[in-house]
Design goal:
Blueprint: H1 2-7, H2 9-34, H3 38-61, H4 65-86, H5 88-91, H6 94-104, H7 107-127, H8 136-172, H9 182-199, E1 203-210, H10 213-220, H11 222-238, E2 245-248, E3 253-259, H12 263-280, E4 282-283, E5 286-287, E6 290-296, H13 303-319, E7 325-327
Parallel strand pairs: 6-7
Antiparallel strand pairs: 1-3, 1-6, 2-3, 4-5
Helix pairs in contact: 2-3, 3-4, 4-6, 4-7, 6-7, 6-8, 7-8, 10-11
Length: 335
């Protein structure tokens, strides 16, 4: 459980805020119901039950977006009703609501929810004078402080979300080429194995190695070598399918994961990429070619064995003179 919370930031936030919500609101619900304030007490009970259901849903499905929007909506409506019913004493709940919404949903949705709550309170205050605010001065002061709190929280939430997104990208992406990294590759291969086992989805991989790449670095420097790697990744991304995944798992070694392909489709993809590289990839010393090894995921096979088979095919291709293709199960070497 704790491992999952460490990996899924939004799930941990929903769980933590849900725990605070249940522990913080339950005593008020009991107190108000016992003292006959059934409207506010019922609102508190709805909040508590909604929180529990949303957290359970998030844990079971892994979907944190819908529970977040649901909780933000329920809490906003309930806080508005509580403020209208309790008057000035209920307004204090609007401030934690602002913070809660920014944790539950995107900054844009949170600021929209906050504005809707404030507009609802102002409309009710004009419709029923004295029900929420004791004076216009008090209402203006409340609106100003809420807007300030909302803007500051928006800035903080936007900045935090942006930094978290950048960290997530850095965790899975090779900083030089923009291809996904070895860590991400291992995770994606595990997912492919699970998908194959559960749904029968076919998967293939192509392992690609740039031929004589060390010569480029030795003769022209690492800057020239880096440029070749970047151009190679851009070229592969342009000529593979949108659903395919490209990973860099060695210096000049790359892996392309092809979901939903067939042995024939895997071979055709390899020949297409080989042709594109031959025609378009150039270094300071001239054209650059690639050796390719490929393998389909077998029934009941683990990802490590699958990768090893593809890697062996790559070394066969390099041993056959490079700029060749070897697909597992195919006795021929294509050049």
């Amino acid at each position: 459980m704790f491992k999952r919370l460490r990996k899924d930031f939004q799930l941990s936030i929903i769980t933590l805020m849900g725990l605070f919500g249940v522990l913080g609101i339950s005593p008020y619900a009991i107190y108000r119901l016992l003292h006959g304030n059934y409207l506010v007490g019922t609102s508190d009970v709805i909040i508590v039950l909604s929180t529990v259901l949303a957290v359970v849903y998030a844990w079971r499905t892994g979907d944190t977006v819908k529970p977040g929007i649901y909780l933000a909506s329920v809490f906003s409506v309930a806080a508005t009703l509580i403020a209208i019913n309790l008057g000035v004493n209920g307004l204090f709940w609007i401030y934690p609501l602002i913070l809660f919404n920014f944790f539950m949903v995107s900054p844009g949705k949170a600021i929209a929810a906050t504005l809707l709550v404030l507009v609802g309170l102002v409309i009710h205050a004009f419709w029923t004078p004295g029900s929420v605010f004791d004076s216009h001065y008090q209402m203006i002061s409340f609106l100003v402080t809420n807007v300030m709190a909302g803007v500051l929280t928006f800035i903080f939430a936007y900045r935090t979300r942006s930094q978290r997104d950048q960290l997530q990208i850095l965790a899975i992406q090779d900083p030089l080429t923009g291809a996904r990294n070895r860590r991400s590759m291992n995770d994606e291969l595990r997912i492919a194995v699970s998908s194959k086992r559960r749904h029968g989805t076919p998967y293939g991989v192509l392992v690609m190695d740039l031929d004589h790449f060390k010569r480029v670095n030795d003769q022209f420097g690492h800057h020239a070598g880096d440029k070749v790697l970047i151009d190679f990744v851009e070229l592969i991304k342009r000529h593979c399918r949108e659903e395919d995944r490209l990973f860099r798992f060695g210096g000049e070694e790359f892996l392309l994961l092809l979901p939903g392909t067939t042995p024939q489709g895997l071979k055709a993809a390899a020949h297409n990429l080989q042709t594109q590289v031959r025609a378009a990839l150039h270094g300071p010393g001239g054209p650059v070619t690639t050796s390719i090894g490929g393998a389909m995921l077998g029934d009941g096979e683990n990802w490590d064995s699958w990768l090893q088979r593809a890697d062996k095919c790559l070394y066969r291709a390099k041993g056959a003179g490079r700029d060749c293709i070897v697909i597992d199960g195919d006795s021929t070497v294509d050049s």
